[in-house]
Amino acid sequence: MSNTVVSVLGSPQPAFPFEIMEKILIDVDDIPQTLRECALVNSFFRVVAQKRIFSTVELVHYDQHSPHSPHNQSKFLDVINSAPHLALRVRSLLIRYVQTSGMERAAFNEVNEPSDNVISSILPLLTNVRSISLIADPFHSWGTLCPNVRSALISSFHSSSITHLQLDKIYGIPLFTILAGCKSLEGLSLFCAVADATWGFPPSNFELLHQQKPCLKYLEVKQVPSFDSFVLHLLDPYTSPVNVLHLQSLAIQARPGEGDTGIPRLIDASHRTLKHLALHQGNRYYRIPISAPTPLTHIPHLQRLDVSFILMKPLDPPSRSWLSNLLETIPPTSELKELNLTIQIIQCLSESGEAVSESDLRGWMSWADFAFDPASKQINGLDLIQFIIPRIEKDMAQKLSLVFEEDKQLEPLRRKGVLRVNLASI
Q: What SUPFAM superfamilies does UniProt report for this protein, alphabetically (predicted)?
């Protein structure tokens, strides 16, 4: 540790090591007013506080019918123009498109000249950003964004400093074209539930085969259209501008009826390096059969497995079998340490509206006879088995805890503190 000390308010005592004072300010980074006041104390406080204040910036683009003016964005632009070093503090950038008019998407025009001008002026100044998130609420079309903003966004995406991109509910974006210009990308998050969305799949390109491509470590794909085709292009060395063969973390939520071929292919492509896998299991809500689970046998270094369910009431026997079969494929030599099961329950409209009973849960939990057997080599090495229940389902969480307490087979897991039931906002 450095011997550098900081004298608070100019007083020779007390004096603290530099690292301790920095840690104190980092611990209050979720209290903006406190950080702003710290920035006024002295030059040291100002440097550290500014680092926290400007580390994450959110730019909100309202539609042309919104009463909101881009005042905050304009003020931020003035600040970084007058103090360019502050633009270098920005590490994470969130750009959010918000529709306030209530108009239908087909008739909605995202162009808002004052806001567009400010955003397109800010983006070129943020040259040290590591992560960009482009999020729309509701869905927006890439083609109707202001041309200047599109151009500025692509330039930002292609910056050598960018390591993570998140594209959320922006449909029609030429994804593969954009990715082709990314230099240092390590993480990619995609979400698009629009049925007619396309990614602009490129034609086969022999040059891509020998081109140096960014190697992704993290990939999240949720409800992307034509999932199996998307994966096929992503894995094809003649069409894909990124390398997904060395993923360490993979999260997948396929649209109903999709993913039977794409999910196994994507997992298999990076099975040697995967440490974290998150799967969203299908449900009967769309009356589509649940496909067989992707075997985990060949993932030697998997350390964390997240599985989320949307169940129907009465609880689904297919999902029970699906989860049991999935866990049985965990190899005995697995490095798995954490299993998280997120459960949401949808009340079937044809049902009486009765709450899920302990009997329902006990029946659905029959898959645990194998999976949670303390003698099982697959489960024995786990440090955490966590059931995550929506906060609105507090009563169900209590019943699930009671079912666990009554099951003698689970007693060793409870004593070790491995088995938990937690509430979360989902």
A: RNI-like
Tell me: pLDDT of 78 over 90.
yes
Residue 208 has pLDDT above 70, yes or no: no
- What gap in Å lies between CA 99 and CA 118, rounded to an integer? 18
CA R_g for the chain: 25
* Orientation of helix 147-157 relative to helix 113-122, angle to 10°: 20
Residues written for the chain:
426
Listed in sequence order, the residues at least 6 apart from 377 whose beta carbon sits closer than 8 Å to its beta carbon are 332, 333
**How far apart (Å, rounded) are the C-alpha atoms in residues 385 and 389?**
13
Tokens of 222: 């949720």
Asked whether the beta carbons of 419 and 413 are under 8 A apart, the reply is yes
CA distance 420 to 70: 46
Whole-angstrom distance, CA of residue 281 vs CA of residue 254:
9
Cα dihedral 327, 331, 332, 335, rounded to 10, equals -90
DSSP state of 293: P
pLDDT in tens, 354-371: 667 777 777 777 666 555
H-type alpha helices, 71-166: 71-82, 84-87, 113-122, 147-157
Q: Taking the domains of the chain in order of start, what are their residue ranges? A: 1-53, 305-426
Q: Rounded to the nearest 10 degrees, what angle do helices 113-122 and 71-82 cross at?
A: 30
How many angstroms separate the CA atoms of 77 and 286, rounded?
A: 47
Cβ neighbours of 100 (radius 10 Å): 12
Neighbours of 325 (CB within 10 A): 14
Q: 164 phi and psi, to 5 degrees?
A: -145, 135
Q: What is the DSSP letter of 333?
A: T
**Helix, strand or coil for residue 149?**
helix
Q: Residue 131's beta-bridge partner residues?
A: 92, 164
Give, in order, the Cα–Cα distances in Å from 367 to each of 1, 228, 327: 52, 29, 9
Give per-residue pLDDT as tens, 49-59: 777 778 889 99
Cα dihedral 196, 200, 206, 207 sign: negative
Q: What is the pTM (predicted TM-score) of this model?
A: 0.83
C-alpha distance from residue 42 to each of 3, 27, 37, 243 (Å): 19, 18, 10, 47
Q: Which residues pair with 167 in a beta bridge?
A: 134, 190
Q: Tokens in use for 356?
A: 């899920």
